[in-house]
Amino acid sequence: MLSDFADEQLRLLAFSAESADFRDGQLLFDEADRADGALLVASGEVALQKKRAKKTYEDVDVAGPGTLLGESALLVDAIRPCRAVAIGDVRVIRIRRALFKRMIMEFPELARRLFEVHAARFQTTASALAPIGERMADLEKINQSRGLRGTKDG
Q: How many other C-beta atoms are found inside a 10 Å radius of the C-beta of residue 32?
């Protein structure tokens, strides 16, 4: 999401954002927490974990330097889909939604590019889901024909 920012815009964003340091095993955020912005991993690695049965957690991914965690929370209210735990020493840059929105207001061309990027992502997702929708419609037709046949026989 930040790739469309010019160097001076990134510097302004970094200067206005907050940095935070975490030690090995420290929780950056928990699953289902309300997200008021995103975290950019500046250094170190972060384990992304999902809750499983019996209050255990399973690693689902590892985020390294340059990874933006909670990208959608820069634009809208969001809930964290997983928890994030520091692996070793980690430094993050916390970008709050209010700061991000101010940046977009000051640089309208960023808003336009973000809109275009998200519209393209949406189109890609919709295209990828189309065959699934078609298959589900076929299955529904099969279920309906079985249900109709069942009422005639029974």
A: 11
Name the one residue in this structure whose structure tokens are 């709050």: 96
Tell me the pLDDT tens digit for each residue of 94-111.
999 999 888 888 888 877
CA atoms within 13 A on the CB side of 88: 8
- The whole-angstrom separation of Cα 75 and Cα 95 is 11
Distances from the Cα of 54 to the Cα of 27, 57, 58, 81, angstroms? 19, 9, 11, 18
42: helix, coil or strand? strand
Give the global pTM: 0.71
What Rg value do the Cα atoms of the chain yield, rounded?
A: 21
Q: Which two tokens stand for residue 125?
A: 């997702």
| CA–CA separation, 144 and 62 (whole Å) | 44
